[in-house]
Design brief:
The structure holds two protein chains of two kinds.
Chain A (H helix, E strand, L loop, with lengths): L12 H16 L5 E2 L1 H4 L4 H9 L6 E2 L7 H7 L11 E5 L23 E5 L9 E5 L7 E4 L6 H9 L8 E5 L3 E5 L4 E4 L5
Parallel strand pairs in A: 2-3, 3-4, 4-7
Antiparallel strand pairs in A: 1-8, 5-6, 5-9, 7-8
Helix pairs in contact in A: 1-3
Chain B lengths: L18 H16 L5 E2 L13 H10 L5 E6 L6 H13 L4 E2 L8 E5 L12 E5 L13 H9 L4 H14 L10 E3 L3 E3 L18 E6 L4 E5 L5 E3 L32 E5 L5 E5 L2 H20 L1
The chains are: A alpha/beta, B alpha/beta.
The structure holds zinc ion.
């Protein structure tokens, strides 16, 4: 018999609610970094994001096989290809393949643009810094992208070129998350080592 | 096995809605924030109140609340109306741990019908609007499919024409509530039946604004620090309600003496109208604070 103890913390309703509120705050304030450690019991932040938002009604693409069989069983989401997926989970340390084309939505249904959950390390602390502006940001906000491959930012700019079409990114390291909705303007800053 | 396992009490867990319903609402909320002003569709669930009594706002609030929240409900500025009090009790009942409050400053989530609190909301507060009619284009285009195309292309020419015709006919824009407001330079929203007085509060706010329309099954948002411009013409600028009396003085609240709030007109016993803050909590707080303010003013 399955007991509550067998269910990882990120799938518990109470934790999902806390995770969602953190994500909502991140999406409303692009580039602000939230630490989810208190609610994920050591699980990767990226898995917590998927656990908070996905169920059998939304498809998830995981080309690199980052999710385990156990993760899929708890998520209950149908697996999908990148262009058809509502949520896409990737490792951001490598550049997106040239044929990596997420859904951007349509003029009448921009909400069908994909949410891309990108795993990196050192979010907010290491790596190249970008300067963000746009809705949710009073003047500007700086964010260190960790190990995110720079191609992601270039490809994102192309995907988000024709608002309201676009994709929304959720960057995740071990326990922290930050969001880059499609409205956020991203400018490169000098690279500090 | 002798006894069947009882069905999971999923449909009446914390927050009344089942987990899948909440997740769908939460996905829609994130997209609404990511695409400011866009009406994101969702599957509205049956709620224990009749549609048209704020089911959209109710569902949004239930998808938000956790047991560490403090919730406030206002109906036209009042915490004590039957609707507001019932909704607040409902939240406390179905979300064990959630605290009820009437004080704006103490609330983390505020559900509202027809007003935005006078007190500027903070970045740790969320205001949830109950929306009866979510689409500002409904006055010029009956087809929902066509309206969606117009919104996507930010094609508001016909709405501008309608406003212009109003202006020519009445010398000013006559819309008193639901004033069409452009968000982040693209989508025009119906900000729900708030007075014009409240519209400027949507612009570059610190808090997050969420809008739920239960009948039309739409959610939209105005994120913090986002431009929200009421549609207007350079020669007929947008104006909030005027509370100047016949002698040219700004009317004051009869209860707290404030001269910087949205006032409700109340018929007096002797036929003389009196005016009182529509935001009851703000009025109460101002009435409490007034003696100090008065002494500090006289000292200055
Ligand atoms: Zn007053």
């Amino acid at each position: 018999m399955t007991t509550a103890l067998d269910v990882p913390a990120v799938y518990c309703p109470k934790h999902r609610q806390r995770l969602f509120r953190q994500l909502l705050d991140c999406m409303a304030r692009p580039g602000s970094v939230a630490d989810l450690a208190a609610w994920i019991d050591g699980a990767p932040a990226a898995l917590a994001v998927l656990a908070a938002l996905c169920d059998s009604e939304v498809s998830v693409a995981d080309q690199q096989g980052l999710l385990t069989d156990g993760d899929w069983r708890f998520l209950e989401s149908p697996q999908s290809t990148v262009p058809a997926a509502r949520f896409i989970f990737v490792d951001g340390a490598t550049a997106p393949a040239p044929n990596f084309e997420p859904a951007l939505g349509a003029l009448t249904t921009p909400e069908q643009g994909a949410t891309i959950v990108i795993r990196v390390s050192g979010l907010g602390t290491t790596g190249p810094k970008v300067r963000l502006s746009g809705p949710g940001i009073a003047s500007h906000r700086d964010l260190a992208l960790g190990t995110l491959h720079p191609d992601w930012i270039e490809r994102r700019a192309a995907w988000c070129r024709f608002f309201p079409l676009g994709v929304d990114l959720i960057l995740c390291d071990e326990s922290r998350v930050a969001a880059l909705p499609r409205t956020t303007r991203v400018a490169r800053m000098e690279i500090h080592r | 096995m002798r006894a069947r396992r009882r069905r999971k009490p999923a449909s009446y867990g914390f927050g009344f809605l089942d987990e899948n319903a909440k997740k769908e609402l939460r996905r829609a909320l994130l997209k609404a924030v990511a695409i400011p002003g866009h009406q994101v569709p969702y599957a509205s669930r049956e709620m224990p109140i009749a549609r048209g009594f704020g089911t959209g706002g109710l569902q949004v609030t239930l998808a938000l609340l956790g047991d560490d929240d403090t919730v406030k409900v206002i109906d036209q500025g009042s915490d004590v109306s039957v609707n507001a009090a019932n909704l607040r009790k409902f939240f406390a009942l179905v979300c064990p741990g959630v605290r009820e409050t009437t004080r704006t400053a103490d609330a983390t989530v505020i559900q509202t019908r027809h007003r935005i609190p006078e007190q500027r909301l903070r970045d740790d507060q969320i205001l949830v609007f109950q929306v009866p009619y979510p689409d500002a284009l409904v006055v010029v285009e009956p087809s929902a499919a066509k309206r969606r195309e117009m919104h996507g292309a930010a094609n508001y020419a016909r709405l501008w024409t309608k406003l212009y015709e109003d202006m020519v006919a009445f010398d000013e824009i006559t819309i008193s509530h639901r004033y069409p407001t452009r968000i982040a330079g693209h989508y025009v929203i119906d900000p729900s039946p708030i007075p014009r007085w409240d519209v400027p509060k949507l612009n570059m706010a610190d808090c997050l604004y969420l809008f739920g329309a239960g009948r039309e099954k739409r959610i939209y948002a105005v994120p913090p620090h986002t431009p929200a411009e009421p549609l207007s013409f350079s020669d007929v600028p947008f104006r909030v309600e005027d509370f100047t009396d016949e002698h040219g003085h700004r009317r004051a609240c009869a209860r707290c003496r404030a001269t910087d709030t949205f006032l409700d007109e109340l018929p007096g016993a002797d036929g003389v109208k009196t005016y009182q803050c529509s935001d009851i909590d703000h009025c109460t707080e101002t009435a409490k604070a007034e003696p100090c303010e008065r002494s500090s003013k006289s000292a200055a």
